[in-house]
Amino acid sequence: MSSDFESYEQDFAVLTAEITGRIGRVPKLVGDEKKQMVANVEKQLEEARELLEQMELEVREIPPQSRGMYSSRMRSYKQEMGKLEADFKRSRIAYSDEVRNELLGDDGNSSENQRAHLLDNTERLERSSRRLEAGYQIAVETEQIGQEMLENLSHDREKIQRARERV
C-alpha cells in the first residue's frame, strides 16, 4: 500500500512543480495564451486535488502504527496545495486587473463613455420602475374588482338562500 502512496507522492511532486512554473508565467502572458494557461493551471490544480484524495484513501488503509508518518506528510501536502491555490488566485487577480483595464480602456473618452453608459442605465431603470408601478396599479385594481365581485356573489347567495327558505 505504501508503494501506491509513494507513487502518488511522486506524481504530486511533478504536478506541483509544473503548476508552480505555470503560475509564474501567467502574469507575463497576453490574450489567448494567458487564457489557455489559466485553464491549464485550473485543470492541473484539479488533478492535484484528486491525487491528494487518493493519497488520503491510501493513508486510511495503512496500519495504525505507521499511519502517523504518512498523516504528517499529508498535512504538508495540503499546506502546499493551499499555497499553490493562493498563488494562482493572486496571479488570476493580476490577470483580471489587466482584463478590466483592457475593457475599460485608458483613453480620455472613458469617463465620458462611462457617464453616457450610466445615464443609459439610469433611464432604463426609470422605465422599468414606471412599468412596475403600472403593473402594481393594475394588480390593485384587479384586487378591488375581485373583492367587489365576491361581495356581489355573497349578496346573491344570501338572496338565493332567502328565496329557498320562502319556498
Give a brief description.
With 167 residues, the chain is mainly α. Helix content is 92%, strand content 0%.
Spell out the key features of this protein.
single chain; 167 residues; mainly alpha; 2 domains; 92% helix; elongated
Structural notes for this entry:
With 167 residues, the chain is mainly α. It has 2 domains: 1-105, Methane Monooxygenase Hydroxylase, Chain G, domain 1 (Up-down Bundle), CATH 1.20.58.400; 112-166. The protein is 92% helix and 0% strand. The protein is built from 4 helices and no strands. It has helices spanning 2-25, 31-61, 64-104, 110-166. Helix 1 runs parallel beside helix 3 (64-104) and helix 2 (31-61) packs antiparallel against helix 3 (64-104). It is elongated. The model has no long low-confidence stretch (mean pLDDT 83).
What's the helix and strand layout?
Blueprint: H1 2-25, H2 31-61, H3 64-104, H4 110-166
Figure out the total of helices. Answer: 4
How many discrete domains? 2
Range of helix content: over 70%
Q: Which overall shape is indicated by the principal axes computed on the Cα atoms?
A: elongated
Structural class assignment: mainly alpha
Q: Helix and strand succession?
A: HHHH
Mean pLDDT over the full residue set: 83
The CATH superfamily of the largest domain appears as t-snare proteins
Task: Please tell me how large the radius of gyration is.
Answer: 34 Å
- The CATH architecture term of the largest domain is Up-down Bundle
Q: Show unreliable segments.
A: none
Q: Could you name the CATH class of the largest domain?
A: Mainly Alpha
Strand composition percent:
under 5%
Largest beta-sheet details: none
How many DSSP E strands? Answer: 0
Kindly report the CATH topology of the largest domain.
Answer: Methane Monooxygenase Hydroxylase, Chain G, domain 1
End-to-end separation: 95 Å
Subunit structure: Interacts with distinct SNARE complexes that contain either STX5 or STX6. Interacts with NAPA and, to a lesser extent, with NAPG. Identified in a complex containing STX6, STX12, VAMP4 and VTI1A.
Subcellular location: Endomembrane system; Golgi apparatus membrane
Family: Belongs to the VTI1 family.
Protein name: Vesicle transport through interaction with t-SNAREs homolog 1A
